[in-house]
Amino acid sequence: MKKWLLIWLISFIPMLTAASQNWDKYKQKVLIHQKSVPGWCVYEKANKLMDLIHETKPDVVVEIGVFGGSSVYPMAESLRFEKRGVIHAIDPWKAENCQMGYTSDDANYMWWTNVDLEKVYKDFAKLIKKHHLNKYCNIMRMTSLEAAGHFADESIDILHIDGNHSEESALTDAQLFLPKVKQGGYIWFDDVNWNTTSKAVTFMMERCVFHSMRSVGNECYLFQKL
To answer: What is the value of pTM for the model shown?
Structure first.
């Protein structure tokens, strides 16, 4: 018995090593291209987004606030590697929604005024099509409020909140979508170092486990629903 177990271990370990090498090679290729995708998802974050999907093998991933797709793209590629799951990319790509909650003299309001979001949307759709990711990415051009009704409670494995960062909008996204996440599911919350997201972050802290070591510095926190 011990002899057969030893033989099995000797044959199985190289398979695990090869699978790990294949993932690392695939991931690095995706991360190289990810740098050219419009958005603010830094290398460390993209790397951790991909690893969480590789580790948990989710069926339902949701991102609120897509812009050019710099975080959706690596997650969709991760789902393709696993040959399962869909990421639902939620964003209205409309200036009035991005400006909501800000005064007209606020830097955020003015920045969104000057961005051609229609072009950003079309370029994102082309990116998904070009990389043959339509099977793994469902584009939902609507607000997070409109999208919430499309998801049942306890249906989301991984949620990424990166939408409008005004105080009211950020808190509303947290309150609306946390019930949609499965018990034990994960929530990435971006730009936690903004003053306007502090109420939403506190809301998450009170209801989830905070994974400090797996978070991205003081910018993007990873929570796990209790």
So the answer is: 0.91
